[in-house]
Design brief:
single chain, about 325 residues, alpha/beta, 5-stranded parallel β-sheet, 12 helices, 12 strands, globular
Length: about 325
């Protein structure tokens, strides 16, 4: 490893993607100083990469919220030992390259679970009761009765969860409180484990056909890319609703837009899109029955503090020669750094 007289920890944060710094500094007190680097949440040009490599020079650790960690950027950061991802998903990091170069990657599973679960339920209610449409019309047109919609209740509806990790499990508990029936599909869990988390296990195709609302809680990996595509939508109930507060590329937005225009689906609520920031020309913006929120599921004070604390504590452990609590790449190439 390249030597540095005094290592420090970089926190990538911007106005659009803030990080709660107090818990990070508390976790790293006496371990390493903390500095904010405003890494953009977009691919870097060669010139930008050179600039940010200079800004990161000497950093032993990085708490990554916005930004992408690529092999070429890693090559320019010889002092880096650990990257703590601000959240559970690590698709913005080339984990294989980090493993090859001896950089540990950690994440914060469960730290955002309550926040994301609550927004998921909020999006379901917004869809089934058409709350944004009514509220928007009252505000814009100063009308009253004409803005009222006759919706449906969540009670008695079947909720299908694709993914039943910590977020999905919390959604299950809240959905039961509303009187919903919950089924789930998760290839990483046995049917017994799914039942123990409060849901009825189903194969994916069966779940799509049985659910009044389908909510996605899966990671974005090659196997889940465009999981909800034209074929999957054709298996859903006519008039069903789709909610995605997980990862944008799980949904084929063009196929979804066509399904909304045709009336095949009754509506969709997306907190994440395939590209962020999204393409303004995407057909999803003009689709009927769509609710779009700007990747805000984890944007609560409590969630940001919990994620920052969890990530900061793991970075501190690694820099002190201790074992990380939430490692992503558990085996590093020996002697790489």
């Amino acid at each position: 490893m390249a030597s540095s007289s005094r290592g420090w920890v970089a926190v990538t944060a911007t106005d659009d993607f803030p990080v709660a710094l107090a818990p990070v500094r508390a976790a790293l007190k006496g371990v390493a100083p903390v500095k904010v680097v405003p890494l953009p949440f977009s691919p870097l040009s060669r010139t930008q990469e050179e600039r940010f490599a200079r800004l990161f020079r000497g950093a032993w650790g990085m708490l990554l919220r916005p930004g992408y960690i690529t092999p070429s950027l890693l090559d320019r950061l010889p002092d880096l030992r650990v990257i703590g991802v601000h959240g559970a998903g690590v698709d913005q990091v080339d984990v294989s390259a980090c493993t090859e170069q001896g950089v540990l990657v950690t994440n914060t599973p469960g730290a955002n679970a309550d926040s994301v679960a609550e927004l998921t339920i909020g999006l379901m209610l917004s869809l089934i009761r058409r709350i944004p449409q009514s509220a928007g019309r009252v505000g814009a047109e100063r009308v009253w009765g004409e803005a009222r919609h006759t919706g449906s209740e969540l009670k008695g509806k079947t909720l299908g969860l694709v993914g039943l990790g910590q977020i999905g499990e919390r959604v299950t508990r809240i959905a039961h409180a509303f009187g919903m029936k919950v089924c789930a599909n998760d290839p990483g869990l046995s049917y017994k484990e799914i039942r123990s988390r409060g849901a009825r296990p189903l194969k994916l195709d069966t779940l799509l056909a049985a659910s009044d609302i389908v909510s996605l809680h899966a990671p974005h990996i090659p196997a889940t890319h465009h999981l909800i595509n034209r074929k999957a939508i054709s298996k859903m109930k006519k008039g069903a609703f789709l909610v995605n507060a997980a990862r944008g590329p799980l949904v084929d937005e063009k196929a979804l837009a066509r399904a909304l225009v045709s009336g095949r689906l009754g509506g969709a609520a997306l907190d994440v899109l395939e590209g962020e920031p999204p393409d303004p020309g995407s057909p999803i913006f003009d689709a009927p029955g769509i609710i779009l929120t700007p990747h805000m599921a984890g944007s609560t004070v409590e969630c940001l503090e919990a994620i920052a604390r969890t990530a900061g504590e793991d970075i501190a452990r690694v820099l002190q020669g201790k074992r990380a609590k939430f490692p992503v790449n558990k085996t590093l190439k020996k002697g790489a750094r």
